Amino acid sequence: MQQTGPMVTFEGTDEERQLAEQVFRVARFHGRLFAATAPIRLKRDDLIQVLAGRDGDPAALGPALDAALGRNPAVFARHETADGVIEYATTLAGRAPVEEQEDLAHTFKVRLMTPVAAAPPPPPRLAPRISDAWTRPPVFDGVTEEVEPGKLAADQDGLDALAEIAATEAEAATDTAVDAGEVERAIAALRDAAPVTDQPAAEPAVVAVPEPETAAPPPLSAVPPDALRAALAARLAADDRFAHFGDRYLSEDQVDRYSRGDLRRIREFILEETVPLADDTLLQSLFGRRPNDPSYEAARFSINYRLARERREFEFVGTGQSRLWSTTGLAPIGTTARKASELGTDFRSLLDEPAAAAPGATVTHILTFYEWVYGLLPLDGLLRQFFPDPYLDDQKSAVLRFEVPQLFVSFLAELRYPTANRGGYLVGFDEFYRESLAPGAVFTIERAPDNDGQYVIRYAATAQNEQRLLQIDERRNRYVFRPQSLYCQVNPDWTLSEDRYPRLAGAKPLDERERRRPEIVAGMAFERGAENVGAKAAPRYWSTPEDLLPVVNIERPFSLRALREVLESPQFPQFSADPDTEGAFFYEPPAKAQGASKKRAAARDADEADDIDDEE
Q1: 89 pairs with which residues across the strands?
Q2: Cα dist from 130 to 126, 440, 495, whole Å
């Protein structure tokens, strides 16, 4: 069926009119399903490519196209975007589009949210006027003087008239006979009982009660910001008209709704990426929202608020400036050699560490053997204040991103917050430690600007240096010394080399029951790394806590404070202070411990003999 178009007259030369007519045909074909007044936008570069395929050179066609469309402003409207892209717009009616202002004066939202003006109060109703006759005291016949309040008139004539009236009524009564003398005696008693005075009765004194003075409220500038913020947060949290997520609040009617299908798409997308994703990534990748959208921040709040209410499927693992979301079924971050509960029990002693001074932008840390094996970073008194606190009240962990500019790599680590009976730590440094660092390495952690969920790790690179350092043979479950190439700066006091601790070779790690007892761990450190100043049959080991600290941290995390508490505790008499050397301690293994030590030594010798046989 042939379509008929509007009659459009183009201006310009014959070539310009023909070119404008060709552009109009392309526009009508492009917007053939548009409304008659809907704008049909065509990019200038696209028009040149379409027309150049028919007429020739695109470079020469550009100026001709601008001249032809510029001569017809009634049909084509020229518009240049912020990116420098030139567009031409027209309509199916053959007229340049005109921006129509949407009438929002009578929408349902305006009628629903705009309060109706209260009706004026009704005019006051005037009370009916009381007749003046009711305002005057009554007048009795025969009484010539009015009785004032507090004063009884003692007019003799009035009393005599009253006596005559009473006597007349008494005589008229037929059922009861009353003596006139009794009436006179009653009137005389009334006259004697009523005091006669010329002065009015004194009115009670009115005591003026002063009104209590109300203190003027302090100015808003005098209120501390923290107190003002807390009061405002408490008021908004108690108001059902506001939704809150962390320290942010938004009106409930502006929060977007998400269907079950939307939530399923979010969960599947996180599982496909295999890592926790930020709210920005979810909004831009799944829902097509752009940061330059005026309602982008409201949409960002909405997705965080909705996901926080779906606790069965989603878990918030972000910070205040880096909001990340995880879901059920996502692979855990970090080592699987030990359970999270066991690691939290190992770091439980860090809960008693005193808080250090507020750290700056960077902190320095020395890597221990325990941390190197499991890829951990402890939340001690310093690092506990360096990393961010939980953003939500019930938040258990946070995922942080670490960058190593020297290696051009970045990785995710999980910060697990301490609880009432478990210490806090970071996990996820396994690969970085194994490939770049060694026990005793010194490195710094730096905060990224304007993002509390991103950090930078730096270390001092050195020339290649090969040493025989302590490692663990997982197949035989023994500690061994193996050559390892070092490319970083290490602290010699924390280096577990074969020259310094030769007795660690072939030692077996403690089992879980022995690892939980700090006195056994400290005693084993004496046996493996301290000097025996006693006899071979009755050993007595001597060392300082500083020298024992690297060996103690082989089995479980220990701070210098915790180690000193164990050595100085009267609960463990096997440890005693050296009276001649300040800060040094002796260790005398108990009788049972000596027998166990001999069994371990015999087992170690048997294992070494088996290894020699295997090598032969």
Answers
A1: 41, 77
A2: 12, 105, 109
pTM of the model: 0.61
Coil vs helix vs strand at 44: helix
What the block records as the tokens of 465 is: 């240096």
521 vs 524: CA distance, rounded Å = 5
Is residue 585 within 8 Å of residue 543, measured between CB atoms?
A: yes
Tokens of 385: 């204040």
Comparing CA positions, the residue from 91, 74, 73 lying closest to residue 27 is 91
Instruction: Give the amino acid at 268.
Output: E
- What are the tokens at 106? 């009578």
Mean pLDDT of 182-193: 59
Q: CA 224, CA 190: separation in Å to the nearest integer?
A: 78
**Domain spanning 340-462: CATH superfamily:** DNA-binding pseudobarrel domain (2.40.330.10)
| Partners of residue 531 on adjacent β-strands | 542
> Mean pLDDT, to the nearest integer, of 518-524?
93
Q: In whole angstroms, what is the distance from residue 389 CA to residue 269 CA?
A: 28
Transcribe 567-616 into DSSP letters. HH-TT-TTEEE-SSSTT-EEE---HHHHHHHHHHHHHHHHHHHHHHHHH-
Residue 434 C-alpha from the chain's centroid: 34
Angle at 115 between CA 113 and CA 121, to 5 degrees: 170
Across all residues in the chain, what is the average pLDDT?
Answer: 83
Q: Say how far apart CA 144 and CA 450 lie, in whole Å.
A: 101
Please tell me which residue, 323 or 156, carries the higher pLDDT value. 323
Amino acid at 280: D
**Higher per-residue pLDDT: 140 or 196:** 140
Name the more confident of 167 and 576: 576
Task: Tell me the domain boundaries of the chain.
Answer: 14-90, 229-327, 340-462, 507-615
Handedness of CA 595, 596, 599, 604 (dihedral sign): negative
At 616 the pLDDT is 42
Q: Provide the 10 A C-beta neighbour count for residue 113.
A: 9
**Residue 268, CA atoms < 13 Å, CB-side half-sphere:** 7
CB 362 within 8 A of CB 444: yes
Determine the angle formed by the axes of helices 279-286 and 260-273, rounding to 10 degrees: 110
pLDDT digits (tens, 9 = 90+) for 274-284: 999 999 999 99
CATH class of domain segment(s) 229-327: mainly alpha
Count of helix runs (H) and strand runs (E) in the chain:
19, 21
Q: Mean pLDDT across the stretch 91-120? A: 81
459 versus 610: which is more confidently predicted? 459
| Cα 405–Cα 408–Cα 413 angle in degrees, nearest 5 | 80
As given in the structure block, the two tokens for residue 107 are: 């929408």
Task: Map residue 286 onto helix, strand or coil.
Answer: helix
Bridge partners of 441, per DSSP, are 490
Alpha helix locations (H) across 238-332?
Answer: 260-273, 279-286, 296-308
The pLDDT score that the predictor gives to residue 1 is: 45
| Secondary structure string (H, E, C) spanning 355-415 | CCCCCCCEEEEECCHHHHHHCEEECCCCHHHHCCCCCCCCCCEEEEEEEECCCCEEEEEEE
Q: Quote the pLDDT of residue 47.
A: 86
Q: Count of residues for the chain?
A: 616
User: Residue 315, SS3?
Assistant: strand
